[in-house]
């Protein structure tokens, strides 16, 4: 059984710290709009204890790319948000994130058999209007809890395609993994970093870094 708590409207501002050689232009915006918490639980029915902690991560569209083979992680707690974060400050590149989900699971393994207990998934859109392909990949994520605890995670790049072809649009999910991630319903802020590179008109490599702080406030 799932207990779903509607937590109303969330309002937050997301600023962007951008590092790009020779470019001071900034065109970004973003805010957290709303969210919900879904929790696994147990219940009593006619004196029988019914085990209902059976939410499979593989059934969640946010994470289908990272759950493979016979692996079947069980969700302990998840939090989902909507956002309208947008960035058009890198020349010819539009980058958007419109929703995200954080989950605590019993365990999940990467291709190197390392075990993790927390995941973050962001749904993104990238439009490359330029004449050269662009590479963008997830670097790290930091989760700050209301009590001040900071939890660091890395990009889950096992199945990530970092090439964005010229004059094309692409959308999908990007993931981050955490060794431990409890209290996902007590998150205050999520800081995400992406790194990118492309060739300029002189065929020189230009590096780019996105630092995306997303302040979160869950109201009952």
SSE blueprint:
Layout: E1 2-9, E2 17-20, E3 28-29, E4 32-40, E5 42-45, E6 48-51, E7 75-87, E8 93-109, E9 115-128, E10 134-145, E11 150-155, E12 163-164, E13 168-178, E14 187-199, E15 205-215
Protein name: DUF4352 domain-containing protein
Describe the protein in words.
The chain is mainly beta and 220 residues long. It has one domain (2-215). It has no helices and 15 strands. It has strands spanning 2-9, 17-20, 28-29, 32-40, 42-45, 48-51, 75-87, 93-109, 115-128, 134-145, 150-155, 163-164, 168-178, 187-199, 205-215. The strands form two sheets. Strands 1, 2, 3, 4, 7, 8, 9, 10, 11, 12, 13, 14 and 15 form a 13-stranded antiparallel beta sheet that branches. A hairpin with a 5-residue loop joins β14 and β15. The model is unreliable at 1-33 and 39-52 (pLDDT under 50). This is DUF4352 domain-containing protein.
Report low-confidence residues grouped into runs of 5 or more: 1-33, 39-52
Number of domains: 1
Kindly state the number of beta strands.
15
Share of residues in helices: under 10%
Rg over alpha carbons: 19 Å
Q: Could you spell the SSE succession in H and E letters?
A: EEEEEEEEEEEEEEE
Taken from the alpha-carbon principal axes, the silhouette is globular
Strand content: over 45%
The helix count comes to 0
Largest sheet: 13 strands, antiparallel
How does the helix and strand content classify structurally?
A: mainly beta
Organism: Vagococcus fluvialis
Protein name: DUF4352 domain-containing protein
